[in-house]
Amino acid sequence: MNRERAETYLRLLAEAELRDPARSLAGARSGDAPFVSIPVALARAAWALTAVGALDLDTADAILADVELALAARICPEPREGGRLSSGVPAWAAGLSGPRPGPQRFARARPRVPMSKLVLGQGPASGPAPAGASPNGPDRYVPVGLMVLFHDELISGELDLMSYAHTAAGARFTATWRTRDPLGSRHHSLPPVEAMTATDDRGERYELLFATKGRPESTCDLTLRPDPPPDIGWLEITAPGEQAVRVDLDRRAEPPEPQVSQISLSIGEHLLNRIAERLLTLAPEHQLDPSRQLAAFRSAPARRAQPAGLVTNLAAGLGATVAALEAAEVLSPHSPVPARLAALCASLGIGGHGIAAAPAPDLPEPWLSMLTHYHRRKPDAAPAGDGFAAVAAALPELEGIRLVLLGLHNFDGGTWMDALALGRLPGLQQGPLGVDMAFPLSMWVRDGAGRWHAARPAGWSDEGGEAALTLRLTPPLSRSCARIEVLATGRSAEVRATLPLCWGYSP
Question: Which CATH number fits domain 140-248: 3.30.1380, 2.60.40, 1.20.120, 1.25.10?
């Protein structure tokens, strides 16, 4: 890694952008001058260099601050008062809402720590590990797959218990829930967990504490208080007016028998792969029609191939990002990843990315699977039906993270996988396109028909040494799938594990 060259590249790029007024005025708005903006390519190159640890945040902030002041001076040559361009705190240094330029926009809510500890998952611990935490993962995790029915005069519904986990942080069920009014229509009222009781095989009773922990709607954790003994044989969950549901805690999940393979990715290649995966998951969100966009991309200039907004949001600055990583010597000029990223953009009909490498003739199998899905216009198919599947499996440690899968469910046309991430996680490292590098693994799921689904973090809650994590699968998974293959990839190794799915359904 060459930090001196990284800083030099960013300063030269800043000077080039300042000499090009047309390009300098494209991007996010500034807090000091509403019509002044940091160039998108410059901001994203700065983020990439800080994300890989080639540039510290203070230096990157200083460079972007100088650029913003220079652009503001062009638009507002006369100070508003007392020689100041603004009476407020500069946007890059304040926790203001709305778009903000520069690395601070992507590093919000992250403590100032040495950059060597903030590199793609090698960051500082988000908190001390709980007392008695096992370095080999959770003490106990059990697939459940049972429903607890409830009703009163206002609502009825069910809690779908997907798994049980007992770790150093405590014992809890991972569950989904559905509620209905007396006429049968579904709504999103919370289940009456406070009225339910839990009793173990020794006659001890426990409270159930409801918490969503940053997960998407309809997913929750039910924590037992007080903490039960680690060797209880079963728990009975009882809702008022309903029969008790017994959860057998001696049940064991089928061992996933994961396969670990050694790989070698540079930190720059890993970052570009994460960006590519985000482009693939953004395609359905923007309702792109790749087949028509690809035809337009080939027959017309890129500026007419699609709306300018999509070009800016999906691909602007990728060329500068690649060049910055090469300048910092964290990406080899001979790496195949930039060419694959260019081919992906062409396949999605995205122009204006600025990647100099010619599109590669081949792409990774998961990328091709998702592109095939889009080209066949599968996003217009009927949404996946609601349901849940019992899963409880721990994967081998990757990048200092031990991932424990604790359930999978479909809701409102989407598919989510719930998990625990055990280990040292850095703080929030939000970047362009919503790429959050705090979770250092690339996650994919292959269904029984051989189709791949990208699994992207959709929400999490850090509890100090353990993070409750939810991954969203794109495209959604069908309930007809009986087994899945999970692929988790870091920089030095990848893990493949085949897991059975035991689906439960609403009554």
Answer: 2.60.40
